[in-house]
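Need residues for this backbone.
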């Protein structure tokens, strides 16, 4: 009897405790991290990539640009950004920094701003500065290279002028030094002109005053530009143009591009060799090719030959008067005219550069084409 009473009491007590615990669990609020109303809308219209991080360092919300940039991995931000988040969480102060994030060879240069959004949330705003940094690096290198390249002929002219003054009583020496001064002056003029041409082409934008250009005439003029040097080196320039070909664009820029290709071919070809210049049509494109039998270019260097001031053989380029800007000009001219530049080369066998441009097919009368 007593045992039954005790059992009933214990059973009732167990039920009571269980129900009490259940009610308590229902009444105790679970910690919920909520994004403030309107925050998502604001973040969606920001130009910066935006990310909201909670107290457990988990990304709760990320804008489309942030996702496209690849900032998150498994709902986590890269370590450099998380360090900023932790600093902001500790003292509530807004922080910003220029960082490099990524793994291996792929790195993104960013400017990050981190600020507290609520007591539990932190907002991270990121701007991709990779392209801006690349352009800034190119600009600094360009200025440094221009300064270096200008010093060479200017210094040579200064020394030669002193030599002429000292050799005033030796007519033969004066003539010899004067000829070298003329060579350096021409080199300086060519370098300055190519710098001016390149500065005009850097944006790869179309010409403000395009015209219809007859390819045969263009190639003939560009070839004539190198005729004197080719004759001096006994190089035969073979010209082949298929039919009436036309392109549309800036005639001066196109002339500069083809002239640079022919000039390079003649400059780097051995004496007594042959340079072939051709122009034909391939579908909707006109292909202007310049082939030489010169020193050729290795596979490792093919990706760099269009960089400003890059030379495959710096010593030889200086001896031949090369500036290292010709192929950069060709590349920009092609881009600004909606075309490309193709290159084939093999060390010891020569090189072939092909300027590919959209063909002009508009029906025009003979007077308009003249």
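Answer:
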């Amino acid at each position: 009897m007593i045992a039954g009473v005790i059992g009933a009491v214990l059973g009732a007590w167990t039920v009571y405790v269980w129900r009490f615990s259940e009610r308590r669990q229902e009444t105790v609020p679970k910690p919920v991290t909520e994004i403030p109303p309107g925050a998502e809308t604001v973040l969606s219209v920001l130009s910066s990539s935006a990310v909201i991080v909670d107290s457990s360092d988990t990304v709760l919300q990320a804008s489309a640009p942030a996702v496209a940039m690849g900032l998150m991995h498994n709902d986590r931000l890269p370590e450099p950004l998380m360090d900023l988040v932790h600093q902001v969480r500790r003292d509530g102060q807004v922080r910003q920094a220029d960082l490099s994030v990524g793994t291996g060879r792929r790195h993104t240069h960013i400017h990050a701003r981190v600020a507290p959004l609520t007591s539990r949330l932190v907002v991270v705003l990121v701007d991709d500065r990779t392209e801006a940094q690349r352009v800034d690096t190119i600009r600094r290198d360009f200025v440094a290279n221009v300064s270096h390249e200008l010093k060479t002929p200017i210094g040579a002219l200064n020394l030669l002028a002193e030599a002429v003054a000292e050799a005033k009583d030796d007519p033969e020496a004066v003539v010899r030094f004067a000829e070298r001064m003329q060579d350096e002056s021409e080199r300086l003029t060519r370098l300055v002109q190519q710098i001016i041409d390149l500065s005009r082409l850097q944006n790869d934008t179309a010409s403000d005053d395009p015209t219809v250009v007859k390819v045969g005439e263009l190639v003939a003029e560009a070839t004539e530009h190198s005729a004197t040097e080719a004759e001096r080196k006994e190089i035969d320039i073979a010209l082949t143009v298929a039919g009436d070909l036309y392109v549309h664009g800036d005639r001066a820029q196109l002339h500069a591009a083809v002239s640079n290709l022919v000039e390079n071919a003649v400059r780097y070809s051995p004496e007594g060799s042959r340079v072939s210049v051709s122009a034909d049509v391939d579908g909707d494109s006109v292909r202007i090719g310049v082939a030489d039998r010169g020193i050729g270019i290795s596979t490792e260097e093919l990706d760099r030959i269009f960089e400003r001031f890059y030379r495959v053989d710096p010593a030889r380029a200086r001896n031949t008067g090369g500036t290292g800007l010709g192929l950069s000009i060709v590349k920009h001219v092609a881009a600004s005219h909606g075309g490309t530049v193709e290159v084939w080369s093999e060390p010891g066998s020569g090189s072939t550069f092909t300027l590919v441009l959209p063909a002009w097919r508009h029906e025009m009368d003979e007077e308009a084409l003249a």
